[in-house]
Amino acid sequence: MTTIATDVAEILHYINGAPSAGTGTQTQPVYNPATGEITGQLHLASSEDLEQVVAAARTAADSWGEVSIAKRTKIMFRFQQLLSEHTDELARIITSEHGKVLSDAAGEIGRGLEVVEFACGISQSLKGDYSDQVAGGIDVFSFRQPLGVVAGITPFNFPVMVPLWMAPVAIAAGNAFILKPSERDPSASMLIADLFKQAGLPDGVFQVLHGGKETVDGLLAHPEIDGISFVGSTPIAKYVHETATKYGKRVQALGGAKNHAVVMPDADMDLAADHINAAAFGSAGQRCMAISVAVAVGEGADALVDKLAERGRGVNVSHGLDEKADMGPVITPASKSRLQKIVGEAEQAGAALVIDGRDLVVKDHENGFFVGPTIIDKVNREMSAYTEEIFGPVLVVLRVDSLEEAIEVVNANPYGNGTAIFTSSGAHARTYTRRIQVGMVGVNIPLPVPVAWHSFGGWKDSLFGEHHIFGPDGVRFYTRGKAVTQRWPEPTQQSTASYSFPSN
Ligand code: NAD
Known about the structure:
- This protein is an alpha/beta fold.
- The protein has 2 domains: 3-255 and 462-483, Aldehyde Dehydrogenase, Chain A, domain 1 (3-Layer(aba) Sandwich), CATH 3.40.605; 259-443, Aldehyde Dehydrogenase, Chain A, domain 2.
- Helix content is 38%, strand content 23%.
- The protein has 16 helices and 23 strands.
- A 7-stranded mixed β-sheet has the order 15-16-17-14-13-19-20, sandwiched between helices. Strands 10-9-8-11-12-22 form a 6-stranded mixed β-sheet, sandwiched between helices.
- Helix 15 links the parallel strand 19 (418-422) and strand 20 (440-443).
- Helix 2 (69-85) packs antiparallel against helix 4 and helix 3 packs across helix 4 (102-120).
- The mean pLDDT is 97.
- Nicotinamide-adenine-dinucleotide (NAD) is lined by residues 153-158, 162, 180, 182-183, 212-213, 216, 231-233, 236, 254-257, 288, 389, 391, 417, 458, 462.
């Protein structure tokens, strides 16, 4: 039974420099997944709200793009400072709507801060190129200019980090940015908007518009929006990419994942088990880089499964504000039921359930959406536990005979976000990293999320579009190149105009 918290918050949009209820008449409940309580009512945007936000963004983009890089980055430095100072407050907001443990929420803010810091140094990335005297008296220079108005559509699982993968780079590069956060944990984006305002960002440069499919469709089709960054599940990423490109926009759409960790028999099994356990069950497995498949190679498999089971049983599942908790709830009752169904199907199809967290009840939080760590061994590639992105604390184990077979398994999977190999052989690591068709690879590192001055992105069904996100690709995505060929003839110089195509 759903209960309602005593102080249900009204969650507004952030339009042109101020919180606003907008003109929409619809609201949607927001839950605390650890208690099952309704804690907020989210205002959903009307089409007039969308028009107002886009018009404000367009006006803001025109003047913001003219502001000097020095002034833009000064504001970004102030934003960095404010974000650091508000980490605890922001982490509590994340935990109360997402459910992840507080230290993990602070960790996601830290990774977002890295991107803000990268954006503070955007002057370096916006430097152009110059070629002197490419022909007699002619020089060429090229540089990058902002797209204009860009929108970011983000998932529930990183309500701060993913918006910060996008907005700081877009804004530092001179664009206005509209954020459409997940409806499930929307409050953190309101504090981000307030901190941008406190940092001195002009009104309209960063705005927040809440809504679901209708709002997203409005953004994808709007003629005044130049670019769309999306992060979420694969079917929606594909849809966003197809739709927004049809409307002539630049799009980067990051999708779902099924990340494999290959464990060679020569690996340090304790290190592998420690890291795979943490990467499978941290944040209740609701990370796009979570390890959801362990590929046990050769004779090491039994030892690996025993060690994983031992660690999995030791995971403390509780309310994210409980300091002893390692892992919180999943996001919705629907996520929990879906996960229970998929685990049941694997069991019926003959897989071995090593740890079963399906029916976990957490004391004092009986209405929370909790599931315990679950490990399924001897899974095959036809089972739904393997073919589906479960997005919960479920680790499946596939057993293979060789590195060659492991590479074939991973490359045959439609997703290509992250992967890891655990081995003590440099040769195995090199073969794997070179041949694997995945965008981000870890060697004895389970969650190879690149630092902010590299870029983040998967291959295959994990990313639609040409650009990875943040870092150098982020700068390229939010700007377009211009090449200028110039001649400043001396007054005495003779004209050399010709009817033939000019050559050097
Ligand atoms: P989701 O696809 O359900 O939602 C993402 C965004 O799309 C939300 O803002 C949502 O409002 C919007 N949306 C949902 N349905 C829509 C529809 N029919 N039409 C238009 N817009 C729609 O994803 P989620 O459940 O919030 O997040 C989890 C998913 O995101 C997982 O699949 C995870 O792997 C993925 N993810 C990927 C990355 C990555 O970097 N590749 C990072 C984080 C999360």
